[in-house]
TrEMBL record:
It comes from the Eukaryota. The lineage of its organism: Eukaryota, Metazoa, Spiralia, Lophotrochozoa, Mollusca. This is Uncharacterized protein. It comes from Pinctada imbricata (Atlantic pearl-oyster). Keywords: Glycoprotein, Glycosidase, Hydrolase, Signal. SUPFAM superfamilies: (Trans)glycosidases.
Length: 487
């Protein structure tokens, strides 16, 4: 990859949208208030599994800072606030006969949505950002069980019914890859199931079905009156061949991307089924080890239902991995992929072990998506970076946003990628899952030692609001890196 520098200038097409994101468990707090029941992350943190035994019980306490936080969003001049709804506030006891809807939960999100609209901010709502009701995990087996699908669809129905008059952008799931691999394979995330051989694939299968059912439910029952859009958010690293001219490295990078993004994107935005290379590799290894088939199959009706079951692709994009082929007998995800991932020691690191600064990779993966899925409509639903101290003078993070957004600009302007909007991650320093309060992604610092959780704007908040106001870069004196050759 040849990298050169150029002035960081140019603006996005008219109508390009900007936003800022959070998710319920990461910012709300109020973990046991107003009828909310426990979810799998409450259990995970109460079991002491997060860094430093941190919990999200209070987090940034957004639940009690509703008006204040909407004003923080407003200061950024963005079009969208992306947030998630907490299932356990809406249907606290899904497995009980009554399965009642909790009015206090409905009221809270009504207040939030109304406050946003009053301030000219559009709600961009994630239905499921990882906080599965604990009863569905403990009594049914969570996403390892197809029984959860109906529960999910019913929950989504309640949301469309109550909020769909005002919410016009829905995301069914945030990052099925993280849910199924880190939650049900590697056990790094809740519900910490460590079974990489069958469970991640079953989880993925159930999530895809729940997604498709929900999409069609919306089209059937709500679209005519509500006229909204339903998408899904997927995450992926840009998968770059370690040796760019080496054919087997290129094939390995392609395979890694099919096993990562393609796992969920191909059924929805491609053929209606899993990628061929994924089916082939999983089968090959199952046979060799005389295992039962592991990747579940879709019948024709299910494929039809899946194909085209989203109005847009939400993309969470942070970093790049270098990929080379690596034959291993390790079975399951990710051993089935037969690749080794690494990082260039020259890449700048961050406050997160997995996150390396590779702005050119953002542009590269957007071009991969354009080619692979017929230039599908994309919203960037997350992009951002951590440091560990949450410093207010966060020039390192400003540089990250500048370079990534500049590469997005090139993808849109020069390459014709169909990206309609960019939503930065995230509004506040959050509870960052297994890393606790340790990794700071916020544009606003939160003082976690202060019972009032004082918020203070970082330099990045001002910088981002300027980009939003200018719809790109005007008179930005800094240089941006530009990658000249995409191999
Ligand atoms: C996303 N990885 O998670 C989530 O959607 C957010 O809730 C989270 O705060 C944000 O990214 C930053 O971590 C990811 O290991 C977690 O590749 C881990 C990975 C990717 C995304």
């Amino acid at each position: 990859v040849k990298v050169t520098s150029e002035p960081c200038n140019g603006t996005f097409p008219d109508g390009f949208k900007w936003g800022i994101a959070t998710s319920a468990y990461q910012v709300e707090g109020a973990w046991n208030e107003s009828g909310k029941s426990r979810h799998i992350w409450d259990k995970y943190t109460h079991d002491g599994l997060a860094y430093n035994h941190d919990r999200g019980d209070k987090a940034g306490d957004s639940y009690h800072h509703l008006e204040e936080d909407v004003q923080l969003v407003k200061k950024l001049h963005v079009n969208y606030y992306r947030f998630s709804i907490s299932w356990t506030r809406i249907i606290p006891h899904p497995t009980k006969q009554s399965k009642g809807v909790n009015n206090a939960g409905i009221d809270y999100y009504n207040r939030l949505i109304n406050e946003l609209i009053k301030n000219d901010i559009e709600p961009f709502v994630t239905i499921y950002h990882w906080d599965l009701p604990l009863s569905l995990q403990e009594e049914l087996g969570g996403w390892n069980s197809s029984d959860v699908i109906d529960h999910y669809v019913r929950y989504a129905d309640v949301l469309f019914n109550n909020f769909g008059d005002r919410v016009k952008h829905w995301l069914t799931f945030n990052e099925p890859w993280v849910i199924c691999w880190m939650g049900y394979g590697s056990a790094e995330y809740a519900p910490s199931v460590k079974e990489p051989i069958f469970t991640p694939y079953r989880c993925g299968h159930n999530i895809l079905k729940a997604h498709a059912e929900t999409y069609h439910l919306y089209k059937r029952k709500y679209f005519k009156t509500q006229q909204g859009k339903v998408g899904i958010t997927l995450n992926t690293d840009n998968m770059h061949p370690k040796e760019e001219k080496n054919a087997s490295h290129k094939a390995a990078a392609e395979r890694a991307q099919q096993f990562n993004l393609g796992w969920f994107a191909n059924p929805i935005f491609g053929t209606g089924d899993y990628p061929e290379v994924m089916k082939e590799y999983i089968m090959k290894k199952s046979r060799k080890l005389k295992l039962l088939p592991r990747l579940p199959t879709f019948n024709d009706e299910e494929k039809q239902k899946l194909k085209g079951s989203a109005d847009f692709l939400g993309l969470n994009q942070y970093t790049t991995s270098l990929v080379e082929p690596y034959t291993t007998d390790v079975i399951g995800y990710p051993g089935d992929v037969d690749v080794k991932l690494s990082h260039d020691p020259k890449w700048k690191t961050s406050g997160s072990t997995w996150l390396f600064v590779t702005p050119w990779g953002f542009r590269e993966v957007l071009n991969w998506i354009k080619r692979e899925y017929n230039n599908v409509r994309v919203y960037i639903t997350e992009n951002g970076i951590t440091d560990n101290n949450g410093t207010l003078n966060d020039v390192f993070r400003v540089r990250y946003y500048r370079e990534y957004i500049h590469n997005l600009l090139r993808a849109v302007r020069d390459d014709g990628c169909n990206v309609q909007g960019y939503i930065a991650w995230c509004l506040l320093d959050t509870f960052e899952w297994s890393s606790g309060n340790h990794e700071k992604f916020g544009l606003y610092q939160v003082d976690f030692s202060d019972p009032n959780r004082k918020r203070t704007a970082k330099k990045s908040a001002g910088y981002y609001s300027r980009i939003v106001r200018d719809n790109g870069f005007k008179n930005d004196e800094e240089l941006c890196t530009r990658e000249k050759e995409v191999s």
